[in-house]
Task: structure prediction
Amino acid sequence: MLIDIIAGARPNFMKIAPVIKAIQAKQAEGSALRYRLVHTGQHYDAAMSGNFFTQLGIPAPNVNLDVGSGTQAEQTGAIMAGYERLLLQAPSQLCLVVGDVTSTMACAIAAQKLRIPVAHIEAGIRSGDWSMPEEINRLVTDSISNWFFTTSDVANENLRSTGVSDERIFFVGNTMIDTLLANMPRLKKPGFFDELGLRAGEYIVTTLHRPKNVDQQDGFADLLSAIADAARGLAVVFPVHPRTAKTLHSLGSLPANIFLVDPQPYLEFNFLVKNALAVITDSGGITEETTVMGVPCLTLRDNTERPETITLGTNELIGTNPAAIKPAMDKLFDEGWKRGSIPPLWDGKTGERIAAHLDRLLLG
Ligand code: UD1
Result:
């Protein structure tokens, strides 16, 4: 029983690592589950891809489709054509996709059209915001998946409301959190930490890469000034995504307390987050990690597909207006931030639960 595990972009890699480990453990117990790791090549730099394989002990991909960069449609088309070619030469029995990146949707379509069933990890989450490519990827992927592995009860409800029957939904928890919990003892201080004079609880981490926040020079510059001003002189450490780097280069000088660093490897990035006073981000996955680490998180978006990070966790939606940042930071400094709790089943055992379901579903 061969399962294709699809990974293409940075936020996929921490989600597949525990599933691969759990399938390997099943094999060691005598299960006939087999996997083939397919990297689409959507992210290709060492900083965005290779480092994650090394640090998280993910085996080298069996296949790399090497699609590289492009527009949404170019990437989707290239991934579909490459993956279809692979399936025609050497079919698998299940296509297992994770998250919401272009590779997720493209491989799900290619597989389902060849009547290879699709299972989606992190299924059912919805922001309702069709201006984000990730939301389109979620809607398409879930509309053609056979099985749904979910992170929350809200996701279960979203799926039920579109007519998915309960026996196809498996509420298993969060594989990204499996990876985080497994690696907490291994987090690594980045080389620049002492050079910049950073001290635990006395700096802010920011990550921004959503087109809405970083693609327009003026708006992006205003956001950065607002963050720098609201930080009350604390250092703001900003690991820069390649998309963000393009606009940053054209901005000229930045506020003196903003420190740009390269995209960080997994262990260094989460060391930074764990020890930060707060995180200001437009990422979705980071809001889950800050929730589990109990670190205050201010999200510069108008919506989220991960509402439990707000209702249970440490996340707050601040919106994308720079004027909203100072009041939120004042609240953090003057009144303190909610402490939050960890959502149900985010317990480090999600990969095992998924492997057990796969074993039963495929091998009965
Ligand atoms: C993608 C995901 C997003 C995720 C993000 C994390 C989609 C629709 N979006 O967005 O959900 O949060 O990854 O990183 O799949 N680039 C490099 N090196 C690389 C990869 C990309 O320089 O290894 C450049 C590309 O040339 C491109 C830009 O970064 O100009 C954006 O990359 P792309 O993969 O298209 O989308 P992301 O914005 O990274």
Residues 10-28 form the longest helix (19 residues).
